[in-house]
Amino acid sequence: xxxxxxxxxxxxxxxxxxxxxxxxxxxxxxxxxxxxxxxxxxxxxxxxxxxxxxxxxxxxxxxxxxxxxxxxxxxxxxxxxxxxxxxxxxxxxxxxxxxxxxxxxxxxxxxxxxxxxxxxxxxxxxxxxxxxxxxxxxxxxxxxxxxxxxxxxxxxxxxxxxxxxxxxxxxxxxxxxxx
Length: 179
Prior knowledge:
Layout: E1 3-5, H1 10-18, E2 22-26, E3 36-40, E4 45-49, E5 52-58, H2 64-71, E6 74-80, E7 88-98, H3 105-109, E8 118-132, H4 148-168
Antiparallel strand pairs: 1-8, 2-3, 2-6, 4-5, 5-8, 6-7, 7-8
């Protein structure tokens, strides 16, 4: 049976930490705007407290999460158990984008392994945490992380990544400001 609270319990925290994959959903305020849903992995999620989490935002071809968070802050994270007991967890909250130039960045970055593709850290003030059964989620086996993103970022180097972000991450699909 599912339940909802205003914080992450110790039991829920253990479940969240065990997941290798999670999904991030955001949306712009415009009714005709694009809803975004992105998968995340690579050991990029951390629980900072019972009402605060963060994840590494790695360079990608889009900038929807950043644009939506800057516009309205709404964000939902979804975790599914693909192995073990069936369970789904959602964290609803308000996102803050913390860029490398922000004085808060080094303290937050210390929670994560280094990734050459790190673009920002998304810090989330959790307003609601809920669980449900997950009976409809199929079973999958985790076989390992992919290393292609880090290899690609290392080949690009800092200047190449900056150029890529200026070209690909300046505006969202709905023409909202990104980076």
